[in-house]
Design brief:
The complex is a heterodimer of chains A (about 350) and B (about 190). Helices cover about 50% and strands about 15% of the residues of chain A. Chain A contains 15 helices and nine strands. Chain A is globular, with a radius of gyration of 20 Å. Classes of the chains: A alpha+beta (about 350), B alpha/beta (about 190).
Chain lengths: ~350, ~190
């Protein structure tokens, strides 16, 4: 199946061995979009890689920027101003809404509900992308964060517009949940399909909503408390069973959006006036060191590993892409299922090929 | 929040491994790698059940200038040669105890690089070690499915090596045929 298949979300191929309609063996094949992002980054300065990180997971450019900034800020101790920290949280949570809402739309699309739920999702996503455009100048390739702060402050009235959006979003979620969550077809197509056990999920390094759907309470926002996440009250939804199926993965994302809205409300209440850029030097030239920085991106643990050798370019630049590593278990989840189910299982993993292939 | 992990206990048990203080990493020899990894995963003091990131670093021979205190107590600049090597780096965390990161490294020579695969211990290494095999050319002993992953199968060379020279024209490299293959075999450069 693939690489040109509507269900593969990009150029991704599955070598599937079938017995009738049942999947006997499956091998994921990728690399069609490979441009060796890491090699490019090793030949340019640290900051010049920032716009490249937008292109990894092109749905979530803000969180990609943040993960890279956190790794770089670990190399050189830079203070981030208060307002910038708040805006980073606001942008990251808005990104989480964008990602989860589109994922649910595409997921239902894969199930055969063509169009309507996806377009409902994209209607809401467009409103958030408008906010990104007003803040950074670009809808998707935001390139908004800098080491030690943000590129620019948000324009006047932006916070009020964001507040309006956050206040209205739960209404849309209510409608969306009413449409989808107890839909008979969705229940029968997803429950018990593509099960992933807790032990395998941990061993295979699965992260993000997929891990929590398998019953592990592990959220890097809580564990590492990077940025200012320790100031916000929010819950981490996770499955009570030790086995997660496609329905769990779908529901976890719906629940996470509610929590993101809670964080957004608190952040918009707490934000105050101030500078958005600290006194970081113009030239970023760290001493020889190694740093691994990671955040909870909407798809899982996004990490950047940087090795500095005292020059303005990184000696080694490594991205730990969540959707690439989550693909490890694709074969285990698909074996014994129907071909049509393999499509939804892939959809529930939530991959973006820009990040898988790098 | 994450707490530091006691590395003294590991070195006592596995005498072949050593602690790199500068980069805070445990350097593991090939013979002990599997046993040490298994112990780190299962022992109740560590429970490092989650291997987050696996990656390679390629070092060429290079001169490093360092300021060292000599016998008379004065600072002196010393030049030493940093030997060429490939490092395979593993970042470990514990989902059970919320600790980490703990870094372990396997060092190998550049000419015939070979390290122990830790995929039998942590499944998450599977695709990442394949990627290192593909881009750095490191051979992983006991890896279940070692193939190229990001580059195509016919590709020659390992692009993440620091001394990799890219071909003149990528376009005719994947599947050269007919006259392009002919010119390629005669060693002519297409302009």
């Amino acid at each position: 199946m693939g690489p040109h298949h509507p269900s593969t979300h990009g150029v991704f191929r599955m070598d599937v061995k079938l017995d009738g309609e049942t999947v006997v063996d499956l091998k994921p094949v990728f690399g069609y979009l490979h441009r060796n992002h890491e090699k490019i980054a090793e030949n340019i300065s640290y900051l010049a890689s920032m716009p490249f990180t937008d292109r990894l997971d092109y749905f979530n450019s803000m969180t990609n920027n943040w993960a890279y900034a956190i790794a770089a800020e670990k190399l050189v101790e830079i203070e981030v101003p208060e307002r910038a920290e708040y805006l980073r949280v606001i942008m990251a949570e808005l990104t989480r809404l964008v990602n989860h809402i589109s994922l649910v739309g595409f997921f239902v699309n894969d199930l055969g509900a063509l169009g309507t739920p996806l377009l409902y999702a994209f209607r809401e996503r467009e409103k958030i992308l408008d906010l990104f455009e007003q803040a950074s100048g670009a809808r998707m390739m935001c390139n908004y964060l800098r080491f030690g702060g943000l590129r620019c402050d948000v324009p006047e009235g932006w916070l009020k517009r964001a507040r309006d959006l956050v206040d209205r979003f739960p209404k849309f979620l209510d409608e969306y949940e009413q449409l989808l969550c107890e839909n008979e077809i969705i229940l029968s197509r997803t429950q018990g399909v593509g099960t992933l056990s807790r032990d395998l999920a941990i061993s295979a390094g699965v992260t993000g909503p997929m891990l929590r759907a398998s019953g592990v309470n592990y959220d890097i926002r809580k564990v590492d408390q990077y940025g200012i996440y320790n100031r916000f009250k929010f819950r981490v939804p996770y499955s009570e069973n030790n086995v997660g199926d496609c329905y769990d993965r779908f529901m976890i994302r719906m629940l996470e959006m509610r929590e993101s809205i809670e964080i957004l409300k608190q952040a918009l209440d707490g934000i105050e006036e101030g500078p958005v850029m600290g006194n970081a030097g113009k030239v970023f030239k760290p001493k020889p060191a190694e740093a691994y920085g990671r955040i909870e991106s909407p798809k899982g643990e996004l990490g950047f590993y940087l090795v500095a050798d005292g020059t303005p370019k990184p000696y080694r630049f490594r991205v730990r892409p969540p959707s690439f590593i989550n693909l490890t278990v694709l074969r285990d989840m698909c074996i014994g299922q129907q071909v049509a189910d393999a499509v939804i299982i892939l959809g529930s993993i939530d991959i973006v090929l820009g990040e898988v292939d790098r | 929040m994450s707490q530091p992990i006691d590395h003294e206990a590991i070195i006592q048990r596995f005498s072949g491994s050593e602690w790199d203080d500068k980069f805070c990493a445990l350097i593991v020899p090939l013979s002990e790698a599997t046993a040490l990894a298994k112990w780190l995963r299962d022992d109740n003091d560590f429970l490092l059940d989650y291997c987050s990131n696996v990656t390679g670093i390629d070092y060429l021979d290079r001169e490093i200038k360092e300021k060292v205190e000599n016998e008379e107590g004065k600072m002196e600049t010393v030049t030493r040669i940093d030997p060429s090597r490939i490092e395979v780096v593993y970042h470990l965390y514990s989902m059970e105890k919320h600790t980490g990161p703990f870094t372990i490294k396997q060092l190998t020579e550049r000419n015939n690089p070979e390290v122990q695969s830790l995929t039998p211990i942590w499944r998450s290494c599977e695709l990442q070690e394949r990627e290192i095999f593909d881009l750095f050319g490191v051979n992983f002993i006991a890896h279940p499915d070692q193939r190229r992953i990001l580059m195509w199968d016919e590709f020659e060379g390992h692009p993440m090596r620091k001394d990799y020279v890219e071909p003149f024209d990528y376009e005719w490299e994947p599947t050269p045929h007919d006259e392009i293959l002919d010119k390629h075999q005669r060693g002519k450069v297409i302009v």
